[in-house]
Amino acid sequence: MKPFAYHQPDQIPDVAKLLTSIEDSKLVAGGMTLIPTLKQRLANPPALIDLSKLGNLKGISDDGATITIGAMTPHAVVAASKLVQARIPGLAALASMIGDPAVRSRGTIGGSVANNDPAADYPAGVLGLGATIVTSMREIPADKFFLGLFETALQQGEIITAIRFPVPQKAGYTKFKAPASRYALVGVFVAKFADGVRVAVTGAGPGVFRVPPMEAVLSDNFDPSAIAAIKIDTDGLTSDIHAEADYRAHLVTVMAKRAVDAALS
Amino acid sequence: MGNVIGIGAAPKRKEDQRFLTGRGNYVSDIKRPGMTAGVFVRSPHGHAVIRGIDESAALAAPGVIAVLTGDDVKADGLGSLPCGWGISDAKGVPMKEPPFPMLAQGKVRFVGDMVAFVIAETPEQANAGAELLKIDYEVLPSVVGVLEAVRPGAPQLFDDVPNNICCDWELGDKAAVESAFRKAAHVAKLSLVNNRLIGNPMEPRAAIAEYEPGTDRFTLWTTSQFPHVVRFLMGALVLNIPQHKLRVVAPDVGGGFGVKQFHYGEEAVITWAAKRVKRPVKWVASRSEGYVSDRHGRDHVTEAELALDETGKFLAFRVKTLANMGGYLSTFGPNIPTNLYGPLLGGVYTTPAIYCNVKVVFTNTVPVDAYRGAGRPEATFVLERIVDVAASEMGIDRVEIRRRNMIPKEAYPYQTPVLVQYDSGDPMGCLDGALAAADVKNFGVRKAASASKGKFRGLGYSTYVEACGLAPSRFAGRLGARGGLYESATVRVHPTGQVTVMIGTHNHGQGHETTFAQIVSDKLGVPFENVDIVFGDTDRVQFGMGTYGSRSLVVGGAALSKATDKVIAKGKKIASHLLEAAEVDIQFESGKFSVAGTDRSKTFEEIAGAAYVPHNYPLEVLEPGLEEQAYYDPVNFTYPGGCHIAEVEVDPETGTVTLINYTAVDDVGTVINPMIVEGQLHGGIVQGVGQALFENAVYDEGSGQLLSGSLMDYCMPRADHLPMMKVATHSTLCTHTPMGVKGCGEVGTIGSPAAVINAVVDALSHLGVTHVDMPATPNRIWRLLQNASLPVAAE
Ligand SMILES: Cc1cc2nc3c(=O)[nH]c(=O)nc-3n(C[C@H](O)[C@H](O)[C@H](O)COP(=O)(O)OP(=O)(O)OC[C@H]3O[C@@H](n4cnc5c(N)ncnc54)[C@H](O)[C@@H]3O)c2cc1C
Question: Aldehyde oxidase/xanthine dehydrogenase a/b hammerhead domain: from which residue to which, for each copy (chain B) (predicted)?
């Protein structure tokens, strides 16, 4: 790890000021992704700006039609939240499947969504539920937020403060874990709303994506059998030493069926 | 006062007190005054010519003390890293043995090959300096697979090693095998790959070296399984340091599995550097660095054929293997796929003729060497797989074909056609025990239950034997060993009767401090807590070959047993004098020397005291002191073995294999501590399951990049992958080791891969699947099912 300056502001405007004034400075939330890259000397920021003193970034609130989760809320808190378990059990289940207990205690929803790892779990939940990413500058709908491999709509100096999730009628998440990393080799989030179904896939490609043909069919018939015959195009899917693209494509259908099952149970 | 805790008891492990309370003393815990930090600069290319190294920016960086390269090694006239085994081909032509410089000279041959060493005040500064080193590489094409490496036109690693073949080795009677094949009623054939593995001990490698000008002595602290061998190889053959001027310490070591039983270039570079910079130098590998520098294991491509008569009796076995050596010959490298492989191809069967040909091949990968089991898991996998293939092709039950060919208990000692002679064993007894323990009778019910959930269930057997307790020096010498393979122990009885044992094996997770103390407690009748075991320090321990090849108890324990016998013999002499009785009348039992048929006796403590306070003592005939030493060189290997039965369930939708049940009944000879034996079996089985289902070191052909270069991509077995295992012992006693022990460190790893894969193939056999290569990953199984003859039922 190379030396860096360390700041711990307690006001959002100060965070933004530091971020824009120190070139290449980085926000640190749980540090579960950032710190390993520093240790491996893959990143060399001159300064880290720690978000942990910003008290209003933590916590979960029920706004009736939506649930809002503060950006600095750790995965373990979401997983164990009675509120999330009652209102969006699929999201609590998703949080419980991330990494291991240590990672879940430190890693945050804001950090995960901002990082947009192509195999991370939260992006599937955020896109699958059609959530809104609330930032220090604006509100961004999930459909406009994830822009591909580690790319998001966040601008220089923009901080995620919370994620607002519409409460669905039913939702489920199923993850086929990559054997070594246990990130999603393929993860599928399915959410049923009064006006239709959303299906979001993580792990299979360079970024989280929706599956319109599945959404259409499930909107009519929310049952695993409805999508059993839907084949995913392998174009653009990832091939690596763990799984080739056609296997990932196959798993999308299998995991989607199981996610519907999970949503129904 | 504590109690005697003897052979067969299961006390908790002595060493765990310090490990579990954070009081272990590992190399990276050690700090020396004035210590500097070193970082190795490693090749990012699989194969390249080094055109030049510009050290100026690195040397100018803050804190950097020195930069050492291959040119400095050459200028100092240092030796190449030695290979401990020299094998020959059928005509007696010795293997090709190109030099293995401790820092690359002119060329790099694998990603991770060491190019330079940067020493600075702090690790951070050494890293920063290392990044400033400018190395001009001319990148060459790499070759990483054995099939590719022997093809005409393949990139050549060494100018004088045509086709990258180090040695074309063979064993067995080729003509007898050919004639048996001509008479065979059936020939089973199998092509398979034995996957490349990375050991991943919990503690990464590390080393510290220090030079004291006052005494002209070097000390090297290193994460080693065999410090005396490092002292010899490095001191005598690489750095030209006299043995009495070099101390090698391997303190607490956090796991080895073979990875730490080699003399590594890092050790030599650091020791050499400590004198050059006149300060202690420390290096601690990162996990990622371990992936590209710890010696890898396995990596075979094999074609096997088994000839059978019409009743399923094995007539002959023929095996052709290409074995990957990596970029250079490591300490035991060429021995593993040859001498530790071919002689095991007889298994527990009466196959009369066996021929084995192994081409040992260089590639642009990390050098390959011994990894838990070393050669024997590879042999067992080939044999136990082809037995299943033959059974299925001939329509004979898999257990039945094994029974028809098994060596009966009465036939021991049994001479195989491939050098080794098994002294004892009861494979049929192990098989019967395992069949019962695994509840094989009711497997059909369980299979039907799986089928009703859309899952395929399979059962797999592995009835196997291994050769361990490395090794009879005379035998090893004939096979090409350049050193002896005995072990030594000193038993020092203190004036107060407590005992310190100095032993040449090394404890890095095996529980030696407990097992060896039990042997002494049992034999001398002293309390278990009064015995300490000292190992891992060439200044404290007389000599030793270290720990590998399941040899510590078998060879080291035997030396300890002999030394303890000598203590008793001397004690009897002292007692005979003190008790004024003839020596033949002195008996030793339960810690007491007594005169037969009388109530006159002396305790062990009294004899120890007299030995060191010789007021009334037979100085004319006996020296004071009570300390004895023994060296033990075994007359034969030991042959533990047994029967493993794996039960798996395959999810055809995702290709996931789940290990549902695992049963092992093993013959490990006398059991000193059943808890420790059980732990060794569990650990060994898990490593074998890891190879069968999860672990795979993958290189990119062409670039030579290691694609599975971290725990994010290299899948280790985890607790939630495993069922509760049933392990039991069914022991016959070894006829030639002093206590009847056979060793238990590797059996689990040797028996298990075949059991697991045989179970996976069984689960899929109704679809026409006849073989699955390791690891049986979901992707691989799914693809097999795509290509299988029957459509897969959807959920
Ligand atoms: C061993 C291990 C296993 C893991 N397994 C999984 C898994 O199975 N599934 C999974 O999804 N993830 C997994 N993760 C990742 C984990 O979920 C991390 O928590 C997550 O990726 C990043 O969250 P963090 O709070 O640690 O962010 P950090 O590491 O602190 O930051 C990550 C990035 O996001 C930026 N950032 C952080 N917070 C904000 C914010 N509020 N606004 C804008 N930018 C911000 C940072 O600047 C940085 O670039 C794993 C991690 C580890 C170490």
Answer: 21-141
pLDDT at position B136 over 70: yes
Q: What is the mean pLDDT of chain A?
A: 96
Question: A157-196: per-residue pLDDT in tens?
Answer: 899 999 999 999 999 999 999 999 999 999 999 999 999 9
**Count of CB pairs separated by less than 8 Å, A with B:** 50
In chain A, the number of structural domains is 2
The residue nearest atom 43 of ligand 1, judged by CA position, is A159
Q: B160: buried, middle or exposed (CB in 10 Å: 19+, 13-18, 0-12)?
A: exposed
Give me the domains of chain B, ranges plus CATH numbers: 16-22+486-570+603-632 (3.30.365.10), 31-140+202-255+260-291 (3.90.1170.50), 296-470+636-787 (3.30.365.10)
Give yes or no for residue A15 CB within 6 A of ligand 1: no
Cβ of A241 within 8 Å of Cβ of B694? The answer is no
ipTM of the complex: 0.95
User: Measured between CB atoms, which of B131, B653, B714 is closest to A180?
Assistant: B714
Give me the DSSP letters along B111-150: TT-EEEEEEESSHHHHHHHHHH-EEEEEE--B--SHHHHT
Check if B707 contacts A (Cβ < 8 Å).
Answer: yes
**pLDDT (mean) for B106-135:** 97
Phi, psi of B195 (to 5 degrees): -65, 155
**Pairwise CA distance, residues B188 & B405, whole Å:** 15
Which of B706, B777, B779 is the best mutation test for A, with the most CBs of A within 10 A? B779
Residue A2 has what pLDDT?
83
Token output for B372: 């838990």
Q: What is the mean pLDDT of residues B684-712?
A: 97
Q: Is A155 on the interface with B (CB under 8 A)?
A: no
Q: Please tell me if residue A76 touches chain B, with a CB cutoff of 8 Å.
A: no
